[in-house]
Design goal:
The complex is a heterodimer of chains A (430) and B (276). With 430 residues, chain A is of the alpha/beta class. Chain A has a single domain (2-429), classed as TIM Barrel (Alpha-Beta Barrel). Chain A has helices at residues 16-22, 36-55, 77-87, 106-119, 133-139, 146-162, 201-209, 224-238, 259-266, 282-285, 296-303, 315-320, 329-343, 359-384, 389-392, 422-429, and strands at 2-6, 60-63, 92-99, 124-129, 167-170, 175-179, 195-197, 214-217, 247-255, 324-327, 347-351. In chain A, the strands form two sheets. In chain A, strands 1, 2, 3, 4, 7, 8, 9, 10 and 11 form a nine-stranded parallel sheet that branches. A two-stranded antiparallel ribbon of chain A has the order 5-6. The two termini of chain A are 31 Å apart. With 276 residues, chain B is α/β, with parallel strands linked by helices. Chain B has one domain: Rossmann fold, CATH 3.40.50.1820. Helix content of chain B is 32%, strand content 21%. Chain B has helices at 49-55, 83-96, 109-120, 151-157, 162-168, 183-200, 234-243, 259-262, 264-272; strands spanning 5-6, 13-19, 22-30, 33-38, 46-47, 58-63, 102-107, 125-131, 221-226, 247-252. Chain B has an eight-stranded mixed sheet with strand order 2-3-6-4-7-8-9-10, with helices on both faces. In chain B, β7, α3 and β8 form a beta-alpha-beta unit. In chain B, α1 (49-55) packs parallel to α9 (264-272) and α2 (83-96) packs across α3 (109-120). The radius of gyration of chain B is 17 Å and the shape is globular. The chains are: A alpha/beta (430), B alpha/beta (276). At the A-B interface, α11 of A face α6 of B.
Chain lengths: 430, 276
């Protein structure tokens, strides 16, 4: 199993009552409430926690990026990745993910990740995402071309990593007279690319068609079966048999020696009114043109609804459904066994600390994970045959799979209309 | 999709003309010299009182801009990236129909498109009428950004009162639908907003390359503004009057941004100006 640590890096030192008064905590929620003294403290605490996660045996440290919101302090994924490249020794740096469509220069991004891969001595996993619509609003990237920009930036990124320069790029959204960065990725042919998401059928299929593992972000456990069905059908249609090595799962998990204390701390996972991307208006989360036209009416109704609020289930209900797992190491291991048996991922991201969980408790949580939980999970993973892409040395993409190993089964193609599941994804993301 | 919403009873036709491979839809009625109306970014909801009032004096062509009007409206040019692209298509449409020179009336976003067309093909125009037109960057105020608010909040902001808004977009018009504004209105608003996003995401509702070219508009221009316009600041009206060689300003009292929708009789009287 590939076991990774994650935290959203919450800007917990903000006045939550002001967010409640405003009715939203993203995009337009004023940064006058941002205290950089507290920001400095929190960043440095997170860095200590990452060092510990590296030391106690995590295979990876997952980092992400969001904008204009207290739920995540990281505004630039490559900045934190660069720091990790220098201060950690063993853990892979798992970017989940780089919001490609929001970047106006995929080439500049390619330079950054090449530097990170070299400095980290080949420890980079460079995940990519479309980014929720609000990221497009915050960075003023046209949301109507988000999917097109994602596809084109991906193609340019892969070409930049694999082909020798100089070459020119004349795309629909990006043009370069010279692509010839004097920064090359260390891992050959290129670092692994993983694709995270909540439950967008379009993105799940896209990942499967490229043979990139899909990392399901806290998707309710009972929905993961349907999710993998979509992935597996798309995989078989392009010619390979998917397995646990194609599956990742991010889950909120908090461990303490005292189970009650762990559950009390785990309530902090509900800190943003239970919405892990904060509260935002639907027309920010999914601006017109960002989502699928198949669900336009549902979206327009939601965007123009008079009443808004959190849709998160109560904490106890999420505990019962194992959307949040908390307790002593023994309790957590037992719960995670069920998760692994049900979801069968080979890549597991443990989202350890959120909200206002203090630094000392965060460190204790990481330490207990490393000393007690991770070894048990590795045993369970072996027992269940959950072998990750590194253990299997599986192909890093469809393009890099030898053609004679592919056996496309056209009848396997998913007959469902595009994006039948997107409205669910939108609901979970708002 | 149902047909256009009817606010009046005058004989009116729906006509589609193919331009650059795209079907462009209009509602047309009345008699006399041709008058073309270009709608706001939220689209034209049907054959409206303003069309009817003008149709007493003109043959009115209420055109759906390319990519606007829902699935039955004008087809989307996938390649269009700027309102100027839409202006080029309107110019081709005018030539294909051999309509020019016309009275060209542009409202809000449609006013921007009309101004762009006037700078590139003034020979297609008899007169340019700009109603609360976007297109110029205000120096003091800001153009109200629809992308930060809901569709309904934005459209309502174009009216000076809720009553005026509901006269055009009645709530609970059809109780069989879940949303009080009706499914069709919401879907078409969203399609229109997507098209506005495609061509007008940034810079928002202005073009720095427009003002220097307005001096080349050789036809008379009429600039009409609601004195309660909360979408495009009044300073933009003055900027248009200053930049256009032959323009005059008419201010409509107690009226919001969408003068065409809120004060159709006043706007028609200003445009016809005693024409019988």
């Amino acid at each position: 199993m590939f076991l990774s640590y994650f935290t959203e890096q919450p800007m917990s030192a903000y006045p939550a009552d002001e967010g409640l008064k405003e009715g939203f905590t993203s995009v337009m929620f004023s940064n006058k409430y941002y205290d950089p003294v507290e920001g400095s403290r929190l960043f440095n605490e997170r860095i200590e926690e990452y060092k510990l996660a590296d030391q106690v045996g995590f295979d990876g440290i997952m980092v992400n990026e969001h904008h204009n919101a207290p739920f995540c302090m990281q505004a630039r994924i490559t900045v934190m990745s660069s720091i990790l490249a220098a201060i950690t020794e063993n853990a892979k740096i798992v970017q989940l993910g780089n919001p490609l469509p929001t970047y106006d220069s995929p080439l500049m991004f390619a330079e950054e990740i090449a530097m990170i891969d070299m400095i980290s001595k080949g420890r980079l996993i460079s995940g990519i995402v479309r980014g929720a619509g609000q990221e497009s609003v915050c960075l003023n990237a046209n949301p109507a071309y988000n999917r097109e920009r994602f596809n084109e930036a991906h193609d340019l990124l892969v070409k930049t990593m694999t082909d020798d320069g100089p070459f020119s790029w004349e795309g629909e959204h990006f043009q370069y007279r010279v692509v010839n960065p004097w920064a090359r990725v260390l891992q050959k042919p290129h670092p692994r690319i993983w694709v995270p998401g909540v439950f967008s059928a379009e993105t799940i299929r896209w990942a499967a068609q490229h043979r990139y593992p899909y990392i399901s972000l806290n998707t309710p456990l009972h929905l993961t079966g349907e999710l993998w069905e979509i992935y597996d059908q798309a995989a078989r249609a392009v010619g390979y048999e998917p397995g646990p090595e194609n599956r990742g799962y991010l889950l909120r998990v908090h461990v303490q020696k005292d189970g009650d204390k762990a559950r009390e701390n785990a309530r902090e996972f509900m800190w943003m009114q239970g919405e892990f991307t904060g509260i935002g208006h639907p027309y920010w989360v999914s601006p017109s043109g960002y989502g699928s036209s198949a669900r336009r009416l549902d979206y327009a109704k939601m965007a123009n609804a008079e009443v808004r609020g959190s849709r998160a289930a109560p904490f106890e209900q999420q505990l019962a459904a194992r959307e949040i797992v908390a307790g002593t190491p023994e309790e957590v291991i037992a719960e995670l066994r069920v998760v692994l048996e049900t979801c069968r991922p080979s890549i597991l991201m443990l989202w350890g600390n959120d909200g206002d969980v203090n630094h000392d408790d965060s460190l204790r949580c990481i330490e207990l994970m490393g000393t007690e939980v991770l070894p048990a999970l590795r045993d369970i993973g072996d027992e269940l045959g959950l072998h990750d892409p590194f253990e299997l040395d599986s192909p890093i993409s469809l393009a890099l799979t030898p053609p004679d190993e592919l056996n496309p089964i056209e009848s396997a193609a998913d007959e469902r209309p595009e994006d039948t599941s997107d409205s669910r994804s939108l609901k979970m993301f708002r | 999709m149902t047909g256009p919403r009817r606010y009046s009873v005058m004989a009116m036709q729906t006509v589609t003309t193919t331009v650059a491979g795209l079907g462009m839809r209009e509602f047309t009625g009345g008699s006399g010299d041709p008058l073309v109306m270009l709608h706001h970014s939220f689209g034209n909801p049907g054959w409206l009182p303003i069309h009817e009032a003008l149709a007493d004096h003109y043959t009115v062509h209420a055109l759906d801009l390319p990519g606007y009007g829902g699935t039955d409206g004008s087809e989307r040019p996938e390649w269009a990236r700027h309102p100027r692209d839409l202006a080029l298509l309107v110019g081709q449409w005018l030539r294909a129909k051999e309509l020019g020179p016309v009275e060209l009336v542009g409202c809000g976003f449609g006013g921007w498109v009309a101004a762009e067309l006037a700078t590139m093909s003034p020979e297609l125009l008899k007169r340019l009428v700009l109603v609360g037109a976007a297109g110029l960057l205000p120096e003091k105020g800001r153009i109200y950004d629809q992308f930060l608010v809901s569709h309904s909040n934005y459209v309502e902001a174009a009216f000076s009162s809720t009553e005026a808004f509901e006269a055009i977009y009645p709530r609970n018009g059809d109780e069989s639908e879940e949303h009080p504004l009706g499914d069709e209105t919401l879907v078409v608003w969203d399609m229109n907003r997507e098209m506005t996003t495609r061509v007008g995401w940034k810079p928002y509702m202005y073009n720095r390359r427009l003002r220097p070219l307005l001096g080349g508009v050789t036809v008379p221009a009429l600039v009409v503004w609601g004195d309660n316009d909360a979408v495009v600041p009044m300073e933009c009206a003055h900027a248009y009057v200053e930049a256009l060689p032959d323009a005059r300003l008419e201010i409509v009292p107690d009226c919001g941004h969408a003068v065409d929708l809120e004060a159709p009789e006043s706007l028609a009287a200003i445009i016809t100006g005693g024409k019988s």
